[in-house]
Every structure is written in structure tokens, then in C-alpha cells.
Specification:
CATH class of the largest domain: Alpha Beta
Helix content: 25-40%
CATH superfamily of the largest domain: SCP2 sterol-binding domain
CATH architecture of the largest domain: 2-Layer Sandwich
Strand order of the largest sheet: 6-5-4-7-8
Distance between the termini: 50 Å
Number of helices: 10
Order of helices and strands: HHEHHEEHHHEEEEHHEH
Radius of gyration: 20 Å
Largest sheet: 5 strands, mixed
Length: about 230
């Protein structure tokens, strides 16, 4: 795929030969939500030149990461989706997002939060080590949009489901509300998650609010780090 290579007999270097080029993992990130038209990908990657996007997609198709399908649509000629091999990059993208969370600044006019990226933003904030075996559903009705977070129940002994596979997020608002709900803003949730604001401070100030049964609220607080003291505290 790449014209440049690290030329090392190492699986990590071989992987980076394929996915280390600028924008490649972000294209994968956007396609993890499902098939996208070229214009959808272009609009979801502000700052990426159209000819570079076309070039990257061509490279990724040649590498077996992306499938291109011609469609009968007057507004688009092709639909792009990840192949089975491309889907294997899902935990890689999630892990990179989690690693980058401490370095994330607040949204600005120059670097706005893309609306369709809200589910991924919420997924990266979930503390994997706090996932309850029984599972839970939480509605996040935030200023920036709605997300339904579903933690799938853990399989029985001997059939443990990988943690990342148990976290599901959807921007679609179901007909019925989840029994547990959090309102506020992504910024406040991020401040709590990063320890810049304690959960108690966020709740007392009204920056965030939670609803639900006592046990489920306790799970919610653990998932987003509410019990941690703020760095200023």
C-alpha cells in the first residue's frame, strides 16, 4: 500500500506501513459507524483535501481495508465500507482515542466538535475497568446531542466478552427512555473524566445532573470517574 516503508521485519512496523499515513486511521474511525458516501467522508474530515481523501481510499482499497461499491444514486457514485480486515482496526482506533483523551482540549471555533463524533467521544470516556458484569443502559442527553450508552452484560464464566466489545453507543433516540439518565454538556463530563472537576462539584454546580435508581447511578458515576477528586481539590 504505502510508497514509503519502515523496512523492518516487525509486525508493528508492517502495520504502520499500512495505517500510519496521515488521515488513514481517521478514515477508518468514520467508517466504523457504517458505510459512507465519498461526500459523507469528505464532510466528516474537515481539513483533508479531496484529492488526498481519494488517494487514501484507493490505497486502503488496494490493501484490503476498504470496499468500494458502485451505487445507483444521482448524488453519489460509490459507497465505501470497511472490509472484515478493516473492522479489525476497531479496538486500535478506540485504544488510540483513549490514549489521546488526557491531551484533548475543549472544542473551539477553530477545532469544533463534529456532531457525528459524539458517540465515539462518549465511548472513549467510559472507564473500561468499571464495567458492571450485569450491564446497564444510560441516556446521555447533552447540550451537544443525544447518545444511548449500552454496556452489554458479561457472558458467563469461561465465555468472557472482551471489554471493548461490551460498550455500545448510538445517537438514535429510542421510543422509550433508559432508566438511567445524565444531562449537561460534553465539556463538563470531560472535566470530570479527566479529574479537572470532581463529580460532586459538577453535580452541585448543576453542570451535570443524573437520574435513576441508586444502584444504577452509582454504576454511572464509576463509569465516568465521578468518585475521583478533582486535581484542584
Amino acid at each position: 500500500m504505502p510508497k514509503r516503508s519502515y523496512n523492518q521485519f516487525c509486525p508493528a512496523s508492517r502495520a504502520l506501513d499500512l495505517i500510519g499515513e496521515r488521515w488513514t486511521l481517521l478514515i477508518v474511525r468514520n467508517l466504523l459507524r457504517g458505510p459512507r458516501r465519498y461526500t459523507d467522508l469528505r464532510d466528516g474530515l474537515p481539513g483533508m483535501a479531496s484529492n488526498l481523501l481519494a488517494h487514501r481510499l484507493s490505497e486502503m482499497e488496494a490493501a484490503g481495508l476498504v470496499h468500494r461499491e458502485e451505487i445507483a444514486d444521482p448524488n453519489a457514485r460509490a459507497l465505501y465500507s470497511l472490509t472484515e480486515r478493516g473492522e479489525e482496526l476497531r479496538p486500535v482506533v478506540v485504544a488510540v482515542g483513549r490514549f489521546g483523551l488526557p491531551y484533548l482540549d475543549m472544542p473551539t471555533d477553530d477545532q469544533p466538535m463534529i456532531d457525528e463524533m459524539l458517540p465515539e467521544a462518549i465511548a472513549t470516556m467510559v472507564l473500561i475497568e468499571e464495567l458492571p458484569d450485569s450491564g446497564i443502559e444510560i441516556d446521555l442527553d447533552l447540550d451537544e446531542g443525544f447518545v444511548r450508552l449500552i454496556v452489554v452484560p458479561q457472558a458467563g464464566p469461561g465465555r468472557r466478552t472482551p471489554a471493548l466489545a461490551r460498550v455500545q453507543v448510538s445517537p438514535d433516540r429510542p421510543a422509550t427512555n433508559a432508566p438511567t439518565r445524565i444531562t449537561g454538556s460534553v465539556a463538563a463530563l470531560l472535566w470530570v473524566r479527566r479529574g479537572e472537576l470532581s463529580g460532586a462539584e459538577a453535580l452541585d454546580s448543576g453542570a451535570l445532573a443524573v437520574e435513576g435508581g441508586r444502584g444504577d447511578i452509582a454504576v454511572l458515576k464509576r463509569l465516568f470517574g465521578f468518585s475521583r477528586r478533582s486535581r484542584q481539590g
